[in-house]
Design a protein that fits this description.
Radius of gyration: 20 Å
Strand order of the largest sheet: 1-9-8-6-7
Number of helices: 16
Shape: globular
Number of strands: 13
Largest sheet: 5 strands, parallel
CATH superfamily of the largest domain: NadA-like
Structural class: alpha/beta
Amino acid sequence: MTQNNTQPFPRIDDTAIRERAWKTPPARHLEGEERQQMLEKVRRLLKEQDAVLVAHYYTDDDLQMLADETGGCVSDSLEMARFGHAHPASTIVVAGVRFMGETAKILNPEKRVLMPSLEAECSLDLSCPADVFSQFCDAHPDRTVVVYANTSAAVKARADWVVTSSIATKVIKHLAAKGEKILWAPDRYLGSYVQKVTGADMLLWQGSCIVHDEFKASALAKLKQAHPEAAVLVHPESPDDVIRLADVVGSTTQIIQAATELDNPTFIVATDNGIFYKMKQAAPDKLFLEAPTGGIGASCGSCAHCPWMAMNGLENLAHTLETGDNEVQVDAETGKQALVSLNRMLRFAEAEKMAATGEANIASPA
């Protein structure tokens, strides 16, 4: 039977995290000739440095465009790291937030991993400090520890499993079927969603994403009424009442896929608006609307865009390639321990693909 363990631990006071995020200055936006010159400079430096650019869906359009046209990758955090592992380049440049660079380094310890900024954080990562989390795990030794990818290398090292939003439900169903009780961190909304879908016994850490937490169900319902032709696509990091209004709940990749597969001419999208670049590429004839962050209690601190993702720009990308600054370092022993939990997910995903298609198409790193 499902146990309602949504408040096993004091809710994280993320006030300081939010204040820090909203004070973060974005990268300078370049236009015209200056932009063209910087694009050419980055293209040249990528070749000179034997580097491949991997960019998250939430980064600036120019960075996603560069990653695509230079043979890199635009995807979610895990696929970015896996792509870097499979690519022959000796340097991986990660346009995203710090935990993504760490994940790339964990999966590719022999490669140099650079980032435009090492100060680009994630509220979920910051809400789950490794020392406090480890104590919480020690207090519940009977539970299997499953953490979301949006965590530090040290938290991944303490976990039994790492999951992404696209595979979380399948992994938890698998563990619950074996009678395992789960300790989940850090996103309480994604954890609650997975708990409802699977019926698993889950103890939930109380972190949240400062971007997805801004979406408001009341304003979304009004926008949905104004656009009855629209399908609502929601990332499961969003609050429960927003998820209940969704036609599709899914990861970033699954949201893009839904836009191509559904017949609706319009989509209301509840995730970071950086994803619109790829959504418009995938479905150019569709109209995409941002889910509102307005309504009672909304601060619109993010307005559907992560301030830390916005730190990634052409200038600091060129700088890190030119100087080698902002290299990601992960303690060797921590990386080895974190690789165990990451590889559990990779092997599980490979088995899922084999069961569905009869062949493996996920390359799990050694």
